[in-house]
Amino acid sequence: MSRSEEVSVKEIALVISDDAETVAGIKQAFAMSLPQMQVRTAGSKQDIANLVIILCPQIIILDLYMQNIDGFELLRTIRQHTSSPVITMSYARDESTLVDVLNLGADGHMTKPLRLLELIARVRACLRRSYPTGNLQSRRSKNNNVSNTAVTRPCRGKPGCRGFSGITTGLDMLTSPSRVLQPWA
Q: In this structure, what CATH number is given to the domain that contains residue 133?
């Protein structure tokens, strides 16, 4: 790969939600306050498979109540495979929802409609705890460049990611809370 083919890879914030208005607000807040982060979105099971598994984002913002996706099961599955910080969001205001998501491994929870300045402050706090040197690159490989023909980065072998081997294995179970999720091999 020649130097002209190399491009710098931005750090990734993954927003998993099917609420277009909320996603638009989050993108705008990141663009203004955290321009060094690329915001990627996922709203379907296949999007989630492709983005969580392949991109290994530095932070994940997860909507708990999406159509056809159980956010609680998705959080449990994400937690089995990555240590990236996760902030959940929902319209639920009850204490039991907050306790449940924290017990499942979320790093924080916000009630919708989101207060975007608070979200950005929470994201910064999560990143400070996850990357204490202040350098988001510190958990990545030494080579911070990729070919501009590559759209994604493999997660396998990256600190913070435990390496998914199957892209769709287990994802069909996300919408069926009565089924027990098995870790991906």
A: 3.40.50.2300
3 state SS of 85: coil
Domains of the chain: total:
1
Q: Is 90 exposed, middle or buried (0-12, 13-18, 19+ CB in 10 A)?
A: buried
pLDDT tens digit sequence for 78-93: 988 788 999 999 999 9
Examine residue 185 and state whether it is found in any structural domain, yes or no.
Answer: no
> Which residues in the chain show pLDDT less than 50?
1-8, 137-159, 162-185
Amino acid at 110: M
Asked if residue 88 belongs to a domain, the reply is: yes
Count CB-CB contacts under 10 A for residue 32: 10
Give dist(CA 185, CA 57) in Å, integer. Answer: 20
| Residue 69 is assigned to a structural domain of this protein | yes
The residue segments making up the domain with residue 27 are 3-175
Segments in the chain forming alpha helices (H) = 20-33, 45-48, 54-55, 71-81, 95-104, 116-130
